[in-house]
């Protein structure tokens, strides 16, 4: 049976998901986008129907899946409008940070089938990772559908404890920003030792990207991969003496992730 999907919001993450669905040619998926801005551009780029408001849909249209891909601060104005779609045949899938499943149940109804997910921005190139949680109303079949949709842009994992999503948000959801900061820092350090800024930026980007791909493909742990690069008494060892010192990189990263997790819990409350 054809699955009717309503994508609410088509910004960076919504576009990444839509690109993944279309490029993977997911069978029997019929997509309509609700996007107040840029409707004509979306229709041209993706060749899918786009409406700028919910009331532009056919009154008889009932989606099997509603994906909320709008910013968290816009949810209060948007989510309640979709309450009339609640039913056993419809699943609501959210990718918004800091919005737990009971947030949606309070606005849609306690019987709403809700999946809360946290993807990250590498989804834009098919290298994302998403962790998801389903509420009591989501069936096993709906979970499989959600896995397939989220898997179109990368790897997917599920947790049984919704509270863990805050830690996921802090690690993988915000994590790409930490990596991009590393690239910035490496490039600036390269300039400091005399490299041309363009070369320093290229070296930083390709080094981080290549190391990430090596880590992805290797069966070795990150610790072993690090050791493989490090010769005793060599240049890498000299650098790691600084990075691995007390109050070094591990401590900074831990503090950063804890701060992000705390903020995620605050937003959830």
Structure explained in plain terms:
This protein is an alpha/beta fold and 269 residues long. It has two domains: 3-161, NAD(P)-binding Rossmann-like Domain (Rossmann fold, 3-Layer(aba) Sandwich); 175-268, ProC C-terminal domain-like (ProC C-terminal domain-like fold), CATH 1.10.3730.10. The chain is 48% helix and 15% strand. It is built from eleven helices and eight strands. It has helices at 12-23, 39-46, 75-78, 101-108, 140-150, 164-173, 175-192, 197-217, 222-229, 235-243, 249-268; strands spanning 3-8, 29-34, 50-51, 65-68, 91-94, 113-118, 128-134, 154-158. Strands 3-2-1-4-5-6-7-8 form an eight-stranded mixed sheet, sandwiched between helices. Helix 1 links the parallel strand 1 (3-8) and strand 2 (29-34). The protein is elongated and about 70 Å long. The model has no long low-confidence stretch (mean pLDDT 92).
List the defining traits of the structure above.
8 strands, single chain, Rossmann fold, ProC C-terminal domain-like fold, alpha/beta, 269 residues, 11 helices, 48% helix
Helix and strand topology:
Elements: E1 3-8, H1 12-23, E2 29-34, H2 39-46, E3 50-51, E4 65-68, H3 75-78, E5 91-94, H4 101-108, E6 113-118, E7 128-134, H5 140-150, E8 154-158, H6 164-173, H7 175-192, H8 197-217, H9 222-229, H10 235-243, H11 249-268
Parallel strand pairs: 1-2, 1-4, 2-3, 4-5, 5-6, 7-8
Antiparallel strand pairs: 6-7
Number of helices: 11
* Overall 3D form: elongated
Strand content: 5-15%
Could you say what the CATH topology of the largest domain is called? Rossmann fold
Query: What's the domain count?
Result: 2
Rounded Rg? 21 Å
CATH-level-2 architecture of the largest domain? 3-Layer(aba) Sandwich
Output the structural class. Answer: alpha/beta
Unreliable residue stretches: none
The helix fraction, in percent, is 40-55%
| Helix/strand order, N-terminal first | EHEHEEHEHEEHEHHHHHH
How confident is the prediction overall: mean pLDDT? 92
Number of strand segments:
8
Q: Identify the CATH homologous superfamily of the largest domain.
A: NAD(P)-binding Rossmann-like Domain
Largest sheet: 8 strands, mixed
Distance between the termini: 38 Å
Please give the CATH class of the largest domain.
Answer: Alpha Beta
Strand order of the largest sheet: 3-2-1-4-5-6-7-8
